Amino acid sequence: MFPVNCYLLYDNTGEAVIIDPGCYFPEEKEFIRDYIQSKGLTVKHMLCTHLHLDHVFGCQFIKDTFGVGIEANPADEFWLEQAPQQARTFGLHIQDMNLKIDKHILDGDIIKFGNLELEAICVPGHSPGSLAFYCKEKKLLFSGDILFQGSIGRADLQGGNFEELKENICNRLFVLPEDVTVYPGHGPSTTIEYEKKNNPFFI
Predict the structure, then answer these.
(1) Distance CA 170, CA 201 (A)
(2) What is the DSSP letter of 129?
(3) For the chain, which domains are there?
(4) In whole angstroms, how large is the CA radius of gyration of the chain?
(5) Torsion angle in degrees (nearest 10) through CA of 75, 117, 191, 128
(6) Could you read off the pLDDT of 168-185 as tens digits, one per residue?
(7) pTM above 0.90, yes or no
(8) Do 132 and 139 touch, CB atoms closer than 8 A?
C-alpha cells in the first residue's frame, strides 16, 4: 500500500545510517536486520526525512533492534502524535505507537558516521519539517518526498504548501551540483540536472 524507499548507508568502517525505515511487514524487517547483521554493521543513526506515516512504520523496530532513536525535524513531531489514528484509518497497526523524536535535526546540522557526513537541508512544503540529506563527498542527495523523478511531493496534507515547496526546491536543492544523484522516498533515482531540465513543475 505504501511502497517507500528505505536507505542503508555505510562505509568501510562498518558504521551505518538508516534513512526512512518504512518497513511494515515482518519479512521487510527481517531483511533489514539480517542484512545489517550479515555485513557486521553498526547502526549509528536512524534518520527520517519527514514523519508521515509511511516513513515511520519501522521506527520502533529499528530502535528496539539497533538501539538508535528517531532523528528528525521537530516541526514534524505532530505527525507522530497522529500516527496511531492514521494507521487505524488504513486498517493498519504500528507496534508501540508512542513514537517520539529522540534527537532534533535542524537545517545545516551535520550527521557523521564512519568517514562520511550528511548535511541536513530543510525544505518545507511537503511537510513543515521535511529534510533532505546531502552527502557532498559522494554527491548523493536523499530527498524524501520533496523531489521525485519527474515530480515533486504532494502539498495537500496538513502543514503542506505547494508554492513554498516549489520555491524551496529551487532555492535549496537546485543550487546543488547538477551531477548530484537524487534518491527519493518513492520511485527511481534521478539527478539534479535532469530535474532542472525536465521536471514539469519547473519548466
Answers:
(1) 11
(2) T
(3) 7-198 (3.60.15.10)
(4) 16
(5) 0
(6) 999 999 999 999 999 999
(7) yes
(8) no
